[in-house]
Design a protein that fits this description.
- With 267 residues, the chain is an alpha+beta fold.
- The chain has 4 helices and 10 strands; from the N terminus they run ααββββββββαββα.
- The strands form 3 sheets. Strands 5, 6, 7, 8, 9 and 10 form a 6-stranded antiparallel sheet that branches. It has a two-stranded antiparallel ribbon with strand order 1-2.
- The longest helix has 28 residues.
- It is elongated and about 115 Å long.
- The termini are far apart.
């Protein structure tokens, strides 16, 4: 037994033996690694593709997407391979996805990133309102699409010559409540929250209201003689299972606005 142990030790400590064993192991490693790389390069990968041409700004539905197998060598760039990662998204405003094309992250975006998405997302009979804001009035860019806001009005109630009052009065009150925000855009019309890697400054909040409230807001915004200011105030209404209906909050403010303006449109 001792002789066998001594023989094995001599064999393993022999330089020529170590060299041969090292070469054999290196060949095995190279062979295995080569085969793995060959399989990785030749085994087809299942990816999603467009079954039809998809125009810009269109929601991608399940019937538009198929799957196919392609060699890994064909997969270049930021390809979206999973069908579930494509269905429900939108084609970018500036992208046409051709029939048979793979889907790339550059051309597949969220709804909020589509400039025209707001025209698809408000009730019939409502009118879109573009409400100007800045970083301060948007509460440090804290008003998001899907949030609800109330709109307050501040105005100077001028002293009437026939009144006993001796000085102007400041009026402040809630004009409208439960308004759903559809979009928040910067001065270039880009969605403020579409790319979190970019710091975009809000310039407008877009929402929709019935026409009578649209006219009321427009009247109020033009009352410069009365130093009027419309103030958006975010609420927690979006956290409720059933948010409240959009409605007028103050008939007094409505009456004031209508008393100092004239509507010339047709009913």
């Amino acid at each position: 037994m001792n002789n066998l142990t001594v023989g094995i030790k001599k064999f393993l400590t022999n330089k020529n033996t170590v060299t041969v064993v090292g070469v054999i192991l290196a060949v095995i490693v190279l062979y295995v690694g080569y085969n793995i790389r060959v399989k990785q390069a030749t085994n087809p990968v299942t990816v999603a593709y467009a079954k039809q041409t998809i125009s810009p700004g269109i929601q991608i539905t399940e019937d538009m997407v198929g799957t196919t197998e392609v060699p890994p060598a064909m997969i270049k760039g930021s390809i979206i391979g999973n069908v579930s990662s494509v269905v429900g998204k939108y084609s970018a405003d500036d992208s046409v996805i051709p029939e048979g094309s793979l889907f790339y992250s550059r051309s597949v975006v969220e709804k909020e990133q589509i400039r025209s998405n707001i025209i698809l997302d408000y009730p019939s009979g409502y009118v879109l309102y573009n409400f100007p804001v800045d970083m301060q009035s948007s509460y440090g860019n804290s008003i998001y699409p899907g949030n609800y806001i109330d709109i307050y009005l501040k105005a100077i109630n001028k002293v009437d010559e026939n009144s006993q009052a001796t000085e102007d009065k400041i009026m402040v009150g809630k004009l409208l409540k439960n308004i759903k925000v559809l979009a928040v855009k910067d001065s270039n019309g880009e969605a403020v929250f579409s790319n979190l890697d970019e710091q975009r400054t809000p310039a407008m909040i877009i929402f929709a209201v019935p026409e009578k409230y649209y006219i009321l807001l427009k009247k109020a915004s033009f009352l410069r003689t009365y130093d009027t200011t419309l103030i958006p105030v975010p609420t927690s209404e979006s956290l409720k299972k059933k948010p409240g209906e959009l409605e007028l909050s103050s008939t007094d403010l409505e009456s004031f606005i209508n008393s100092v303006t004239v509507w010339t449109g047709e009913e």
